[in-house]
Amino acid sequence: MGTSAKTLRRSLVAAAALPLLIGALASCGYGSEAAKDDAPKANVAADGKKLSASEVRIGYFPNLTHATALVGLQEGLIAKELGATAIKPQAFNAGPSEIEALNGGSLDIGFIGPSPSINAYVKSKGSNLRIISGSASGGVKLVVNPAKIKTLDDLKGKNIATPQKGNTQDVAFLNWIAEKGWKVDPESGKGDVSVVRTDNKVTPDAFKSGSIDGAWVPEPTASKLVSDGGAVLLDETALWPDKKFVITNIIVSQKFLKEHPDVVEAVLTGTVKTNEWINANPEKAKASANAKLAAESGKPLDAKVIDPAWPSILLTDDPLASTLKTQAEWAVKAKLIEQPDLNGIYDLTLLNKVLKAAGKPAVSDAGLGATK
User: Distance between terminal CA atoms of the chain?
Assistant: First the structure.
């Protein structure tokens, strides 16, 4: 090959390699164009401020009593406040597994019931979580087989399901039994009423088979039982002052709260706006929650289930802290837990900041707030 041919060949190889070299340099962040186009995006919230975490891991249950999470995620109302901070949603079916994830560092914020919150806080001696907001009230009913049970007194000697030993509904039912003057062993569930701890996913089949005569359960399980021939004998709201009690609150790991208060504030801004939107648009919100449930399970709730279930749940930012204190007292009375020290379980500082900015009144921690 002649000198001129070799020179031409080297020129062609260099020309071919040039785009690859430029691409490699750009991928490493070299060059003015790379700095402009390929630099990592900042974690920018809705108000334009850069947030301190690239992601936040949020847990919830695929239940209607977790509608704030369902709708907030489905409609992008929480994500909007986080800007470029990504949401990593995680669905759980039981409180203990969600608490385990929070304690293990794989979850930052969670929607969860009061009893798991109390149990986890006490077991960790107040070191693992804080309750930072309310989410929902109500949505719990006693549904029975009307052929076997016609009055509340008829429950004596019957098999009644609750979701789990020591869970929020189990504690409420055991307390109701005690107030009737009946005796039940809290560990075995045996006594004047047989308390059968049954996963909510299994309860409808147990009801149809006749192995249980009724259940004290949250929505949508309660309305599923009604659609299978059950009758609502008692709505738990009737047992509470002002007909309100906490069924779902929002918790955060203390580590995440300390390290990323700006992210927590953004999430709470999103949940407050979500609850406001739900309460202003109940039919649209119901459809949104059902769409999220369908995405989780592959199947939406039937209208005969979701239509009666939805209006029984009140979405609220107020954690209804005094009712959590009452639920803890019930658990003590049932001998499920020792007398707990709940001082510091709440930190409503960021929530009240968000509420004030939205022109809404502050909410109370019932004297159980964290000291700074």
Answer: 82
| CA proximity to 285, closest of 69, 110, 80 | 69
For residue 44, the model assigns a pLDDT of 64
Taking alpha carbons only, the member of 113, 158, 144 closest to residue 229 is 144
Q: How many CB atoms lie within 10 A of CB 310?
A: 23
Contact 170, 289 (CB under 8 A): no
Per residue in 301-339, pLDDT tens? Answer: 999 999 999 999 999 999 999 999 999 999 999 998 889
Please report how the helices 67-74 and 261-280 are oriented relative to each other, as an axis angle in degrees rounded to 10: 100
What is the largest distance, in Å, between two alpha-carbon atoms of the chain?
Answer: 109
C-alpha–C-alpha distance, residues 47 and 174, integer Å: 47
More reliable by pLDDT, 50 or 25: 50
Binning pLDDT at 50, 70 and 90, where does residue 371 land? Answer: confident
Question: Are the C-beta atoms of 292 and 74 separated by less than 8 Å?
Answer: yes
Query: SS3 for 176?
Result: helix
**Of 212 and 13, which is predicted with more confidence?**
212
Residue 108 tokens, joined: 């930052």
Q: Quick one: pLDDT at residue 289? A: 97
Query: DSSP letter at 311?
Result: G
Q: What is the pLDDT of residue 198?
A: 94
Which residue's structure tokens are 């949401």? 87
Q: What pLDDT is attached to residue 341?
A: 93
Q: What are the DSSP E strand ranges found in the chain?
A: 55-60, 86-91, 109-112, 129-138, 140-144, 159-162, 194-197, 214-218, 231-235, 246-253, 313-315
The pair of three-digit structure tokens given for residue 265, joined into one six-digit string? 């504030």
The CA angle 260-263-268, to the nearest 5 degrees, is 125
Question: Which stretch of 36-50, 171-185, 356-370 has the lowest confidence by average pLDDT?
Answer: 36-50
Residue 133: helix, strand or coil by DSSP?
A: strand
Q: Over pLDDT 90: what percentage of the chain? A: 78
* Whole-number Å distance between alpha carbons of 370 and 364: 12
Distance from C-alpha of 253 to C-alpha of 216, rounded to nearest angstrom? 30
What DSSP string runs through 278-308? HHH-HHHHHHHHHHHHHHHHSSPPPHHHHHH
For 323, the enclosing helix (H) or strand (E) is: helix 321-333
Measured in residues, the chain has a length of 372
